[in-house]
Amino acid sequence: MKISDFPWLGDRSLIDNTVHNSVYNKTKRLIDIIGAIIGLILTAILAIPIFIAIQIDDPGPILYRQTRCGLRGKTFKIWKFRSMVIDAEKQKYLVKNEVEGHIFKNSNDPRITKIGKFLRRSSLDEFPQFWNVLTGEMSLVGTRPPTPDEVEKYQPYHWKRLEVKPGLTGEWQVNGRSRVTNFEDVVKLDLDYQQKWSVLYDLNLILKTIIVVLSCRGAC
Length: 220
What we know:
Elements: H1 26-57, E1 63-69, E2 75-81, H2 114-121, H3 130-134, E3 139-141, H4 148-151, E4 167-169, H5 171-174, H6 183-196, H7 199-215
Parallel strand pairs: 3-4
Antiparallel strand pairs: 1-2
């Protein structure tokens, strides 16, 4: 799936096919590969206790995958440790969206399991995404990958945020997470990242992410 698959955007001439220069940076890709390998080793170690905890709390699959939109709107399957009940997507319409704009979030989502709350608070639910980083669908640092139903509602300028690969972490995760309640603020953070980007800036965001995760600051 790509831009041409979204006819509802109207005048697609307003949307170009350029990508950010970070996409082809070899140093950034090398950091992604090294980080992904380390992350997957940690994921493998954590998988057994997490699997046991999930089976005790809400028996079912340990992993959950969802379609997301990545670079220039191309779709891919994102992986997570399951933090919600099995039929969560079917129950989404029952949950109130607390965020303004083209993003869905509820701080007290009833679909989240007990172990799921811990996984999200500690960010452990996102560890399987290191596989997405290793395969090149994501980067360690980038933008939050939106769902196709969110992208359907995009205005042309919103597509600017998809000129970089989606990231396991980024400006939004470090500077707010649950405190950001407006999609336009997310877009602003993503565009700020593109302007500030450098390999050193990525490394700085990775360090900040580690601090945020260990302190559980800003977690949902």
